Amino acid sequence: MNNSRVYRASTFAPVNIAVIKYWGKRDAKLNLPTNSSLSVTLSQDHLRAHTTASCAASFDSDTLKLNGQQQDVSGSRIQSCLAELRRLRHAMEDADGSLPKLSDMKLHVVSENNFPTAAGLASSAAGFAALVRAIANLYELDASPTELSRIARQGSGSACRSLFGGYCAWDMGKAADGSDSVAYEVAPASHWPDMCALILVASADKKDVSSTAGMQQTVASSSLMEHRIKHVVPERMQEMEQAVRDRDFAAFADLTMRDSNNFHATCLDTCPPIFYMNDTSRAAVRVVEAINKAAGRPVCAYTFDAGPNAVVYHLASNRAAVAGVFKLILGGKPGWEGNQGATIGSTAAIPKGAEAAAGVLQAGVSRVILTAVGDGPRKTDQHLC
Amino acid sequence: MNNSRVYRASTFAPVNIAVIKYWGKRDAKLNLPTNSSLSVTLSQDHLRAHTTASCAASFDSDTLKLNGQQQDVSGSRIQSCLAELRRLRHAMEDADGSLPKLSDMKLHVVSENNFPTAAGLASSAAGFAALVRAIANLYELDASPTELSRIARQGSGSACRSLFGGYCAWDMGKAADGSDSVAYEVAPASHWPDMCALILVASADKKDVSSTAGMQQTVASSSLMEHRIKHVVPERMQEMEQAVRDRDFAAFADLTMRDSNNFHATCLDTCPPIFYMNDTSRAAVRVVEAINKAAGRPVCAYTFDAGPNAVVYHLASNRAAVAGVFKLILGGKPGWEGNQGATIGSTAAIPKGAEAAAGVLQAGVSRVILTAVGDGPRKTDQHLC
What we know:
The structure is a homodimer of 385-residue chains. Chain A has helices spanning 76-95, 123-138, 145-155, 211-221, 225-245, 249-268, 279-295, 319-330, 338-342, 355-364, and strands at 6-14, 16-20, 25-27, 32-33, 37-41, 48-56, 63-66, 69-71, 106-113, 167-170, 183-187, 195-202, 300-304, 310-315, 365-372, 378-380. Chain A is α+β, with helices and mostly antiparallel strands. The first copy, chain A, has two domains: 6-192, Ribosomal Protein S5, domain 2 (2-Layer Sandwich), CATH 3.30.230; 195-372, GHMP kinase, C-terminal domain (Alpha-Beta Plaits). The interface between A and B is medium-sized, with 28 and 28 residues.
């Protein structure tokens, strides 16, 4: 065995933004959720993690460098992912003695996001999906995205959904060991390719409470959470899958907005209360409502993760009507440059009833990101080091 | 009968601020609520409605003047109250032929609040309680506050609780005709006289959605509301009554904050969502939490009605620790003048963790009101005209 040989593989992995939200774990160690969830994978042209995994007999220890900073790899989440991937590689090596013993080598993982980590843009989801996918590529594992999703889930729950493109669900599963708590494809991006997203990045302070801590406070103290888990989400999951299969934007929009609000309601019902939405977020809600009212039907839908940023889903056919309003209000902010933004014209007027909200939005949004539904992780020969 | 004789009676009536919230009607015509509620009546020294009811054979029509403006009296709410009071008077007149036939005369009602009507300070509760109490005085009705509460409830639901001082509950009742949906005294102010309230009046626009419209939207569309009604409130009502009976501030504070958050969570879960709390409200929450943390126990509790104003309950023994922090932050705002405010010294420092919230509060609060638990409606010889 050539001791100087470095094995290497790289991947890009996408961000996903849930439309039926994950909030709450029934098992914190295994990252098993209290309810199923469903998300749209966003294009890696705009938001992505880029990760290179290397191993060599000469490496002394496992390391992880994220955006140029060495990270602690002793945490149980990352250790679980590494151990599972090594176990799969080890089984391959046992079955075929000609394979190099990569599972015995230390790993060096280098990862970069093309967007700010702390912006509340699901960076940990993309990051853990990229880490698992890159090591799976390095190990040449014959594992399906669903099998890898079970591993990525242990790193960051919502990461399991970033192993797929398009429209992806995470089944909460029933097994105590988490073996059936995995992601699956509801529909590929090609099924409904005209789903666009406009992200309004709010100029906020660091988030109030981390989602890891926040969701467990909600599980422990919200009197409404159990009702959400048992009665609200199961029904909505079925309806949302159907909306995606039918390419029914009106149903998709209604469910998306209701579920975002329901999730933030359980945050508010937490003791002490958790606030992720702020006055800027609420202004975005009012502008979306005014656009839909002016259109006479739902042409856009807001959703908010554990932070104040609005993600506004809309179809390409309504891009002028939706993004045009936001360009009129926020045209002076960064994010409109480039092919997508340059082709959008501002609408003539702010829709009726949204005038005050437009002012709040101008004051509170720092940049916009124009993107759309996209595909799953992409293998690449661009290696980071 | 002397046709020129004008009969007249006047009363003051207090504001009440609920700690278990009323939100939702099961019968909109009769103002029958979906759940019971419990409130603290605030002192009429600071916040009150003042109402004079007159009648005379020479009066042409029923009229109502509120803060100098003639109001429409054709609405079903006020008509229900007038009809019920006249019916009671009529029965007295039937039983005793010597009584003047006041029930046949038109009524002139004049009312003034000593605080801004639109400030979200339960003005309609005080107003309808005063109207009913003044006419009951005029008619010399032998009706208990609970009997009158059944009438006031038809004017404005929470008005029924302003017919009592101290700690007052409104039993939702079961009867279809609303006969058992009445207020009762949990404890008089003298039972727990050291309950104080500091109101932070937020400089807000007109409220988002009226509470009358908003609560019915919540009933119709919130997936969490039914759980609140059936499971959350019934248990909390019992616990809150017990906390009042035991003068247990820690339990009172915990229940008060949880129920405010639970109510606002159902507002957020409404479709479209209703936002009454804003960034100023949330800053008040964080300051209260920081004060309690610094004290090592709950010494104050926030609650928010259908608007952004915080009402901060605390005991007189903790006034220095609680109001002192708010005076340090908001000492430049109106409301600290007068006996109560002048005696409060600012604390030396803002409690740890509340520094950012203090800045938001400074920017968003327009005035403060220092008050305390108080007694029920007071008859007065000061007549308005």
